[in-house]
Amino acid sequence: MQTQLFALDFDGVLCDSALETGLSGWQVASQIWPDMPTQMPEQILSDFRVVRPVMETGYEAILICRLLYEGTPSDLLIDDFPKQINLILLRENLAVADLKKQFGEYRDNWIKTDLASWIEMNPLYPGVREFLQQIPLQQRFIITTKQERFVIEILSANQINILPQQIYGLDRKLKKPQILEDLQRLNPIATILFVEDRLPTLLDVIQTPSLSAIKLFFANWGYNTSADKKQAMHNPRITTLETPSLHNLTH
Predict the structure, then answer these.
(1) How far from the centroid of its chain's Cα atoms is residue 122's Cα?
(2) Closest-CA residue to 142 (of 31, 18, 13, 37)
(3) φ/ψ (deg, to 5) at 4
């Protein structure tokens, strides 16, 4: 039987990190902009969840929180996200590398001072633990824009083993299609099943001719919009998953 490798996104597929990401983004933003209150208002947290589907990398939470605090409507952020992010970076003369560093350091400090509450804010989706435990260790790969050490913390707190070399995170500075190409090259006779909640990422893979053999799955429960769900449903390359289930992936 041909080997199957499971290439799984993390945030929005395995872990519901929206609450922790929003709270961390707010705290870093309040360090950059002292006019912001320390406590994140409930309405902004609620709006952050609405905007979360268009966010690609954690540090962007800092900018989303600032824009929401300034009164930018959530629907404008959803419709015009890259432009709004670039505008605030330019306006405030901010460097992406610095924001990534500040975001990572804030999380590291939270983990160091109160690991239990940080884990609590990063719950796995229902069924994920059982789903992962059914996949042999050598066949589990995580492909994420999260920093790798945070993935390891969350999985180990949930008693899930993962080989560190099989986590492809932010630290590797690679786009997901490139990571999938590397996996394919290293495992030429394996079937790769890629599960992702962001439709634009799946479309990038579809537009990469060398990845035509990879099986694509859209995690309906993750960070995506109703328009994304509709588009994924009508794309012949993409299979929509309603819940994390090994049976639905392999049948």
Answers:
(1) 12
(2) 13
(3) -110, 135
Report the C-alpha gap between 243 and 76 in whole angstroms. Answer: 30
Q: Cβ(22)–Cβ(45) under 8 Å?
A: yes
180 CB contacts (<8 Å, ≥6 apart)? 7, 143, 192, 194, 205, 208, 211, 214
Which CATH number fits the domain 4-16+123-250, given the four candidates 3.40.640.10, 3.30.70.370, 1.20.1600.10, 3.40.50.1000?
3.40.50.1000
pTM above 0.85, yes or no: yes
- Domain residue extents for the chain: 4-16+123-250, 18-120
193 phi/psi in degrees, rounded to 5: -110, 115
CB 49 within 8 A of CB 63: no
One pLDDT digit (tens) per residue for the chain, 251 residues: 468 999 999 999 999 999 999 999 999 999 999 999 999 999 999 999 999 999 988 999 999 999 999 999 999 999 999 999 999 999 999 999 999 999 999 999 999 999 999 999 999 999 999 999 999 999 999 999 888 999 999 999 999 999 999 999 988 888 999 999 999 999 999 999 999 999 999 999 999 999 999 999 999 999 999 999 999 999 999 999 999 887 777 77
β-sheet bridge partners, residue 202: none
What is the spatial distance between Cα 70 and Cα 33, in angstroms, rounded to a whole number?
11
